[in-house]
Design a protein that fits this description.
Layout (H helix, E strand, L loop, with lengths): L2 E4 L14 E4 L2 E4 L17 H19 L6 E8 L5 H11 L6 E6 L9 E8 L1
Parallel strand pairs: 4-5
Antiparallel strand pairs: 1-2, 2-3, 3-6, 4-6
Helix pairs in contact: 1-2
């Protein structure tokens, strides 16, 4: 078994000792993506919907760099700074997974990096 590190400039770079994604055994495991604008260290302006959209755009870019896409995601985990954002996040999330959405967990956490409102990680098939 081997693992391959995935990196793309089309998504925010790692801000610590981790990879944007790892490919192992025909699966891609993405790191959690916060709504950073690629090439900057700035969160996208706006509320939960704008932040969810950017986080998922970042996930999409990482998956594409790995040679797969959102259609092959089998599991997501959504971390929310406030569960009261769930319905608004869900509206945007549904546009990225319009058919056969992946399994998902959504949890509220005490705090996210850079005080983001949302962070999303995925597991996908190659």
């Amino acid at each position: 078994m081997s693992k391959v590190v995935v990196h793309t400039e089309k998504a925010p770079g790692a801000v610590g000792p981790y990879s944007q994604a790892i490919i192992a055994n025909g699966m891609v495991f993405t790191a959690g993506q916060v709504p950073l604008i690629p090439g900057t260290k700035s969160l996208i302006e706006g509320g939960i919907q704008e932040q969810t959209r950017q986080a998922l755009q970042n996930v999409k870019a990482v998956l594409e760099a790995a040679g797969t896409g959102l259609e092959n995601v089998v599991k997501t985990t959504v971390f929310l700074s406030d569960m009261n954002h769930f319905a608004a996040m869900n509206e945007v999330y549904a546009t990225f997974f319009p058919q056969n959405p992946p399994a998902r967990s959504a949890v509220q956490v005490a705090r996210l990096p850079l005080d983001a409102l949302v962070e999303i990680e995925t597991i996908a098939l190659l």
